[in-house]
Amino acid sequence: MRTNVDGRDVPAVLGVPLALASLIALASLALAAALGWRPARTGETGLAILIVFAVLAAAGASDDLRGDETDRGFAGHVSALRRGRVTGGVLKIVAGAVSGIGAGLLLFEGDLAAATATALLVALGANTINLFDRAPGRAGKLVLVLVLPLMAFGDVRWGIGAAGAIGALLACLPLDLDERAMLGDAGANPLGGVAGLGLALSLSASGRWVAVLVLVAVNAASERWSFSHAIRTTPWLHALDRIGRK
User: Do the domain assignments include residue 3?
Assistant: First the structure.
């Protein structure tokens, strides 16, 4: 159970169906490719999506089972680590870095700069989406804002491989908006990581680093300011945030 921005306790359980649907979709693509359907041949891109989603979903599920922790933000997790306590946030940071490095090296073998940017985008993307998961449907909407343009105009293989995860998100979003369930870390982190991977594959070399800087700025801002307060006090953001909610 997690307490959302309205003070309500909501079960953080949507990560499980998201992960299952995404993995089944990737397995189905692999089977279709083996049977000769050429559009399903996502190759190393599909494997990179699988690595990112599986690792971040597992780390997120571990954090969900811990429940709410008193240590929040990057500074809080580092402080806890110095005291000898490994928080769920630290596990997610490690998971994001490891899966991002693995995906980057797989996709950009020999291009260290591109692999590094990919690792950063995966880790930062996962944490960014997780920051917005306290309000009903907010994290899911942000994922859609990021990935739908990428699916329309970005890397084709990534779009095909990520389609299962996005379809599962669309199916789960009504439950999130109704406050009957929420994505939790097991849902928000892998979705953010896959979105970061899509940015890495769809942007130019300079575009990747611009995206890294933007995500760094967003994560740094979260250490000082409340995004929920900013959204509530900005009329057009508040209107978008309320779409579909009770």
Answer: no
